[in-house]
Structures are given as structure tokens and as C-alpha cells.
Specification:
293 residues, alpha/beta, Phosphatidylinositol Transfer Protein Sec14p, 2 domains, 5-stranded mixed beta sheet, 5 strands, 10% strand, globular
């Protein structure tokens, strides 16, 4: 009798790792020599994310990465500083939480009901700044972040314009592939359903699967969210027990400190140096990082 040979989980993992290494090497050869920020950006982990986003197709991954490098060279996301977008963050409509999820990932809290400006360009720069900040905050070995979207105060009158929602999705999917682990939409009002029916068509299948709706009266959805987050850390508005509130002044101090870390990571930053020299941030550097939410 013949027995079908089957590989062990360890062999499968080793085979998968060898395949990934081979594809990364192939993509490196395809994109050619890099310099400056492009060299800093295109780590092996980065190339792997683009390959995963394009189902390990090297040609498609190369095209996607090339478009991102072109976008980064003109948009310069790593050069955006808090002083430029601080006004967008005054209401706490988007900020980095002081806690992580159960896997140690950075958590971004989005509160669309707290929209306070009308310039889509400035809103997108604020969004990109917070993405870059969240990724810089990731612990070693962790590649993804988690989102918590709080619909408190949201209504059809302060709804995010469709154009803004589409651009947000475009930036996330095309220039930050495989960076989002999970996004929980907490207690969206019924009127949001019509908006969602349109927005979901902008999402690729991988991103769509990461979006989870949570309703306080739906036990399964609540339990799913709590499997990702410690209830003691979650704000009460998101079904948790924490009573901490967003404090814009404290958060601003933390962001200015993080701007220094960003500059150190990417290289010399004349814009930040001038800002410090002008005395705008002098009080920050003698303080420890506070709790900000």
C-alpha cells in the first residue's frame, strides 16, 4: 500500500520562507539600485509587504512599489512635521492611542464625528503624518497597526465627503500595503449604511476583510474586538473601562518629541532644526512622554 507523503508544519514554514526570500531577491533585482530615502524605505520587510499585496507577483509588486516611491518623492510624508498639521488634530479626530493591542501593535483612534476643518489637502497630510508616526512607533518585529473608529457624534451633516474617503483608502491601500491589521468600526449609526455601501467598493478584498463592525448589543462583535484589546485600555466610548480623554497639548508635546525620532530615522531635517532654533519646542525636550489619551 502506498502512503501519501505529507510535509510537516515546520517544513511548510521553511518552504514558505525560502519562497519569500527568493521573491524578495527577485524584486530587489527588478527595482535596481536605490539611494537616499528610497534606500531607507525599501527594506526586505517592505519589499515583502508589496509582494504580499500583489500575491507575490514580482512585476505587479515592482509597479506598485515604483508608484509609491514616486509618490513619496513628491509628497515627502517623512518630512511632514506636527507643527504643520497640529490644527487638524485639535479635536482628537485622529490620534495615536497610549495603549497597544494584545499583539503589541500601535493603535490609531479615528473619530469622524470630530471633524473640524474643510481642507481635504490638509486633512490628508494630517492622516499621512499619523500613519508615518504610527509606523515609527511599532515595536521591533511588528509590521502592522490597528484602527479603532469611534462614531460618537457622527451624523449625516458632518459626514466625511466621499472624495476624502476615497483618497484615504487610496493612500492606505496603494502606499501603505499590508500595514493595517484590523479596523473596528464601533457602533456606526444606521444612516452610515448608505455611505458604507458606496465606500466598500473602493476597498480591495484584503482590506475589506480587515474591516469589522462592532455593535454594543451584538455579543459576538464585542467579543471579537475584546479579543484584540484589553478592556481596561479601551475608552468608555468604545465599550471599554478607561476614562482617559484626548488632551491636545499633551499629545502635541509627544508628537514634537516623535518628530525628533523621525528626523533621526530618515536623516538630517533642516525644517525641524529651524523650528527648534526658533524656540517653538524648547519646553518639550525636558519632559517625559505623558499619557495622551
Amino acid at each position: 500500500m502506498f502512503h501519501r507523503w505529507s510535509s510537516s508544519p515546520q517544513q511548510d514554514q521553511e518552504s514558505s520562507e525560502l519562497h519569500a526570500e527568493s521573491k524578495i531577491k527577485e524584486l530587489k533585482g527588478a527595482i535596481g539600485p536605490l539611494s537616499g530615502h528610497g534606500l531607507v524605505y525599501c527594506t526586505d520587510a517592505c519589499l515583502k509587504r508589496y509582494l504580499e499585496a500583489r500575491n507575490w507577483n514580482v512585476d505587479k509588486s515592482k509597479k506598485m512599489l515604483g508608484e509609491t516611491l514616486k509618490w513619496r518623492s513628491t509628497y515627502k510624508p517623512e518630512e511632514i512635521r506636527w507643527q504643520e498639521v497640529a490644527m487638524e488634530g485639535e479635536t482628537g479626530k485622529l490620534y495615536r492611542a497610549s495603549f497597544r493591542d494584545r499583539q503589541g501593535r500601535t493603535v490609531l483612534i479615528l473619530r469622524p464625528g470630530m471633524q473640524n476643518t474643510t481642507s481635504m489637502e490638509n486633512q490628508m497630510r494630517h492622516f499621512v503624518y499619523m500613519l508615518e508616526n504610527a509606523l515609527l512607533d511599532l515595536p521591533p518585529g511588528q509590521e502592522q497597526m490597528a484602527w479603532l473608529i469611534d462614531f460618537t457624534g457622527w451624523s449625516i451633516t458632518n459626514n466625511v465627503p466621499l472624495k476624502s474617503a476615497r483618497e484615504t483608502i487610496n493612500i492606505l491601500q496603494n502606499h501603505y500595503p499590508e500595514r493595517l491589521a484590523i479596523a473596528f468600526l464601533y457602533n456606526p449609526p444606521r444612516v452610515f449604511e448608505a455611505f458604507w455601501k458606496i465606500v466598500k467598493y473602493f476597498l480591495d478584498s484584503k482590506t475589506f476583510q480587515k474591516v469589522k463592525f462592532v455593535y454594543p448589543k451584538n455579543k459576538d462583535s464585542v467579543e471579537l474586538m475584546k479579543s484584540y484589546f484589553d478592556e481596561e485600555n479601551l475608552p468608555k466610548e468604545l465599550g471599554g473601562k478607561s476614562t482617559m480623554r484626548y488632551n491636545h497639548e499633551e499629545f502635541s508635546r509627544l508628537m514634537v518629541q516623535d518628530d525628533l525620532k523621525c528626523a533621526a530615522f530618515w536623516g538630517p531635517d533642516e525644517k525641524l532644526s529651524n523650528h527648534i532654533a526658533n524656540g517653538h519646542s524648547a519646553a518639550v525636550f525636558n519632559e517625559t512622554s505623558p499619557d495622551v489619551c
